[in-house]
Design a protein that fits this description.
Number of helices: 8
Number of strands: 11
Order of helices and strands: HEHEHEEHEEHEEHEHEEH
Helix content: 25-40%
Structural class: alpha/beta
Strand order of the largest sheet: 4-3-2-1-9-10-11
CATH superfamily of the largest domain: HAD superfamily/HAD-like
Strand content: 15-25%
Radius of gyration: 18 Å
Distance between the termini: 23 Å
Oligomer: single chain
Number of domains: 2
Length: about 260
């Protein structure tokens, strides 16, 4: 089956959920994460699609950061922190850390600060549930050395949940995973109205493979990998521009 055929079948169902990663999917990858913005064509397609379809952005970004960069139209649900936060649970995302988890998060941040110290282009981002080592702007030897140090050190600590993505190592004080967050969202939406019959998810990073694996083609779910690399997704497109075109096509079909 081609992607166009899969979209046609998906669009013909009743209630469906379109879920999208942000960076590398709606927005091209940029060196400065704060400069990321959705392509105008993608933003326009989302405006049209949300009128007929449940739409969510599922990102590793903190919820507030995702909201500020994506500037989504009203009605789009935001899932941040690799599934640990949801805009349906209020502005803060609805999850809090225990005292032990807060202590672990502080220690993780301090350890990553030491690993990043003196390495130009390496920086540490703090999120409510995790800390992230970013290496995209670093010289390749520094990127490799700091990534190895993070994975061999704090990533192995008891209670730490580690994710490795493109030029990032994210260390969580709670379980991380877009797949679980996506399934929770599907169940939450289904509980508030007609059941969500199928989910389409598009992602570009290795952290999106968790979401691909959580979905099932047998129940009508559609998984789309954006860009190169091995994947468990059923379909592939080349770029965010192709995603914008896909969303426009889906908006036409759903209307």
């Amino acid at each position: 089956m081609s992607l166009d055929e899969a979209l046609g079948r998906f669009a013909g169902r009743g209630r469906v959920l379109v879920a999208l990663d942000f960076d590398g999917v709606l927005s091209p990858i940029v060196d400065d994460p704060a400069a990321a913005r959705p392509l105008p064509e993608a933003a326009q397609a989302l405006e049209r699609l949300v009128a007929t379809t449940d739409v969510a952005l599922v990102s590793g970004r903190d919820l507030d950061d995702l909201r500020a960069r994506a500037t989504p139209p009203g009605g789009v649900v935001l899932v941040g922190g690799h599934g640990t936060q949801s805009s349906l649970e209020g502005a803060a995302g609805g999850q809090s850390l225990t005292a032990d988890e807060q202590d672990l998060l502080q220690r993780l941040g301090a350890e990553l600060d030491q690993i990043a110290a003196g390495r130009d282009g390496v920086h540490v981002e703090r999120k409510p549930m995790s800390v992230v080592l970013h290496t995209r702007r670093a010289a390749r030897p520094d990127a490799a050395a700091t990534t190895e140090a993070a994975l061999a050190g704090p990533a192995t600590w008891t209670g730490v949940h580690a994710l490795r993505g493109k030029e990032v190592v994210e260390l969580g004080a709670v379980q991380l995973g877009k797949g679980a967050g996506l399934l929770r969202l599907r169940d939450r939406l289904s509980a508030d109205g007609p059941a969500v019959e199928a989910v389409l998810f598009a992602g570009d990073d290795v952290t999106d493979e968790n979401a691909f694996a959580a979905l099932s083609p047998d129940r009508g779910d559609v998984t789309v990998k954006v860009g190169e690399g091995e994947t468990g997704a059923a379909f592939r497109v080349d770029s965010p521009a192709d995603v914008a075109a896909l969303l426009g096509r889906l908006a036409d079909l759903r209307s």
